Model the fold of this input.
Amino acid sequence: MDTSASNRRLRVLLTAIGNKTLVPQPDFQRRLVWTNKDKIEFIKTVLEGYPFPEIYIAAGRVDPKTGEGSEVLVDGQQRISTLYQYFKGSPDIKLSNNLPAYSDLDEEKQIAFLEYKVVVRDMGNMPIEHIKEVFKRINSTSYGLNAMELHNSRFGGEFKQFAEEVSKDKFFENNRVFTSGDIKRMNDVKYCLGLTITIMTTYFNRDKELELYLEKFNEEFPEKERISKEVSMVLNFIERLNFESTSRVFKKADFYTLFVEIHRALVKNDLSLNVSILRECLDSFYDRVDRVADGGLVNDTKAKEYYNSALQASNDRSNRITRGESIFELIQGSIK
Done:
């Protein structure tokens, strides 16, 4: 593959976007997900004259009759699109007090901005299949990373940060809900995202809603304070139940269910629960489930259904609902 690197003045790239001879978002590119803070910091980097990593372009369509052609931005869309928005005074960027609008810069600074040199690697006239492959390889985060790590590479905003804060609660460490491998691969954050979304909505299928909510609340998470209080309330209540460390309640699928159903009882239904009675009911039920797991209690339909829903495809919506119904029935038996 023959590629060449050169410098292009920023004004050349911005003009090309304006006249549509440079396409900033081919169909294989990811959508813009930078927060406003990300954009502000990047613009300041350019205004202060610091370099940023090279961008990749490739030849686009050519009109054989007129000889006019276009280029596609293979990698660097967030950077160049942000600079274009700033240059055009787009409402998609909310400027801070320490970053004046482009139109308010003095002429010398405007020219310095436009003359900023961008390192461009030209991939030439390459088949679209090859361009897509290069894009994947440039964005090496897509190689060897799990789904949550990919989300993390795209979303660094408020909702993801909230889930990180929840995952660091001492409750999870003290009760060993997450393994070191979970934490290393960000599965703890992914788990807490799922918990948060579920108590905000309802049971959903697998990880279907994660990207939607990461993007929806990337810029702002208005309900952060309320949800944070609710999460703390539920964790504190489960702490009061004082389960043995060996209880299956600390298995991820089981804890997920108990957390959601306790939230349903305390927050959504405003119920008052007897801690000692609920602990006794849950201990008895979990013991039955464990005996089913060991091959016993073959006629215990309730425990068997729960066990099966926690054993395989535990993140399927139907299995989450099955476990939830069993646990909420026990919770109702402990209402004061």
Q: What stands out?
A: Residues 275-293 form the longest helix (19 residues). The mean pLDDT is 88.
